[in-house]
Amino acid sequence: MPGVPKRLGDTMDDLLGRSLYRTESKYHFFFGDETSLRLFSSLTHKIHANNQEYFGVLELREACTELPEQAGLMLDVVPRSDIPAGHAIHYVETLHERVWHVWHTAAFYLTGNAHSIKAFRKAILERGVDARNIIVQPYRAEGL
Predict the structure, then answer these.
(1) Tell me, which fold does domain 22-139 have in CATH?
(2) By C-alpha distance, which of 107, 113, 56, 49 is closest to 83?
(3) Which residue in 18, 47, 116, 142 has the fewest CB atoms around it within 10 Å?
(4) Mean pLDDT confidence for 95-110
(5) Residues with Cβ within 8 Å of residue 90, at least 6 apart in sequence
(6) CA distance 50 to 37
(7) How far is CA 139 from CA 33, 102, 105, in A?
(8) Burial grade of 55 (CB within 10 A; 0-12, 13-18, 19 or more)
(9) What is the mean pLDDT of residues 41-57?
(10) pLDDT tens figures, 111-135
C-alpha cells in the first residue's frame, strides 16, 4: 500500500501474487474478504503494469468497508451474509449480459473464507466460467 513500509506479510503477498498471477489473461476478477486485500493490491500492480483490467467484489464486515479504497483498490463491496458468498453471488447474477460476455473469460481469483470460495466457485461455474480460469487461495474457514 502506498506510503506504508513493507512488512513480512506484504512480501509474502507479493510472492504469492507473482505465483498466482495469470499473465496471459487480459481480464482479472477478484472475490474475497478483508484477508484478501494485500494479495489483490499486489496483483493490481502487475495488472496495471501490463495494461490489463480488473474488477470484482469483496464481502466485508461493516467496519471494514473503507479498506479497499484505502488500499487503492477499485472493487465493489457487499456486506457479509449468513449464507456463504450470498451477496457476492447475487452481485454476479445481476451483471449485465454484455459485461458477463466479456468478463466470464477472465482469470478469477477467489480468496478468503473457504466456505464462501466454494459457494462462489460453484455459482461462476454455473455461469459458464471455465474451471481452469479459477485460482483459489483460502485463508480461513469457520469451524476449523
Answers:
(1) Rossmann fold (3.40.50)
(2) 113
(3) 142
(4) 90
(5) 78
(6) 20
(7) 10, 29, 25
(8) middle
(9) 93
(10) 999 999 999 999 999 999 999 999 9
Task: Name the pairing type of β-strands 27-32 and 134-140.
Answer: unpaired
pTM: 0.85
Count of residues making up the chain:
144
Q: What is the pLDDT of residues 13-40, one digit of tens each?
A: 444 445 688 999 999 999 999 999 989 9
Q: Is the dihedral of CA 40, 7, 117, 125 positive or negative?
A: positive
pLDDT value for 19: 61
Q: Give the other-Cβ count within 10 Å of 35's Cβ.
A: 14
d(CA 74, CA 55): 7
Q: How far is CA 121 from CA 34, 50, 73, in A?
A: 18, 26, 22
Residue position matching grid coordinates 469451524? 143
Share of the chain above pLDDT 70, in %: 84
Kindly report the backbone phi and psi dihedral angles of residue 11, in degrees, each rounded to the nearest multiple of 5, phi listed first: -65, -40
